[in-house]
Amino acid sequence: MRDVYIVECVRTPLGKGKDDGALRHVLPVQLLGKTLLKYHLDAKHVDDVVCGCVSPINQQGGNIGRLALLQAGFPVSVPGVQLNRMCGSGQQAIHFVAQAIASGDIDIGIGCGVEMMSVVKMGSDAGSMLFRKEFLDNFPYKLIHQGASAEKIAVKYDVSRKDCDDFANNSHLKAGVARNLGFLDGQIVPVEAKQQDGTVITVTEDEGIRYPPNRASLDKLKSSFKKEGVVTAGNASQITDGASAVLLASADAVKKYNLRVRARIISRVVIGSDPILMLDGVIPATKLAVEKAGLKLSDIDLFEINEAFATVPLAWQKTLNIPWEKVNVCGGACAHGHPLGATGAVLMTKLVNDLERTRGRYGLQTMCIGWGMATASIIEKTDKVLEPFSPTKAKL
């Protein structure tokens, strides 16, 4: 199997997925297209574009992966496809491209994702199927809302409401500090976006971050899925608009096109787990990714775990005993939001940049997924230059 390198990774700012969100009036195909333009490589050399999108209908339908690359001006010879592994879609897109490169099928590909939750509402792709009695009565599992699963996680792993609110507060705190110190600037592609009043602004920052956070305000929120439960709108991921893309290449392509290497993918897994409890698959997925990489958990310098609900990283950390100072060091989805199909690529972009900034070596990303699944990846930051890099020689 061939080595697979991350050559570049970018994301848009993440906007509130509401009618007054900063990105609300940008078309999804245009938003994703913005992330496909920032590479020091002629687009004709890209062998495939794989796009994660959880609600691939209406403005996000029609194979948005292919449409976005055409929107971005790629030659018609470049193919594209969309996939839906629910919240793990963006990460799965990266995995599929990495697998194609490792096998020798392609040399260069883009794993990306997009979700405009202000435009295409969450769950709209399933229509009424999941609520039809004839379907539910004959299905082998009693399907429940993810929020209800998050409450079950809290009970199983003894996670309190205070734990969840403290975690969410810290997510905003870390994200706000990271934004103010400029840690996020290099990974974000500015987006020009029309606003409700007709003006056009340039969006450069994640819209959902509240800094300084107000810890007391979290105590006042009502539980969302269970009376006296722990999950609230404040300690779960925000409804969000966003897109992200990761450019991957083989060693041969890196040499041929004089590309800079930023990280190497050394492990990638996806697992199934209990479809009712649903959200704790991140625990076995993390263990399996570490095992496949031939590492120990203590070898990992930074972790990115999606904050779909605060109960998930809290249960994961409690079980695996991972030091909090290594986890989501620039905040997570409780603060910047969770644009479903895009989040996997967003978190990978953050992880690559944070490993470079902190001079760490290994980073692990994991995400819980609806109906009981989880993805996980381990990357190794590397400054390895397979051939002397010169910007003047790069194939722009």
UniProtKB/TrEMBL annotation:
Record-annotated Thiolase N-terminal domain positions: 4-251
All copies of domain Thiolase C-terminal, residue ranges: 260-381
Keywords per UniProt: Acyltransferase, Transferase
One Pfam family hit: Thiolase_C
Active site: C87 (acyl-thioester intermediate), H338 (proton acceptor), C368 (proton acceptor)
Family matches, as InterPro entries: Thiolase, Thiolase-like, Thiolase_C, Thiolase_N
GO MF entry, a single one: acyltransferase activity, transferring groups other than amino-acyl groups
Signal peptide (residue range): none
Gene3D superfamilies: 3.40.47.10
Record NCBIfam families: AcCoA-C-Actrans
Recorded family membership: Belongs to the thiolase-like superfamily. Thiolase family.
Protein name: Uncharacterized protein
Organism: Reticulomyxa filosa
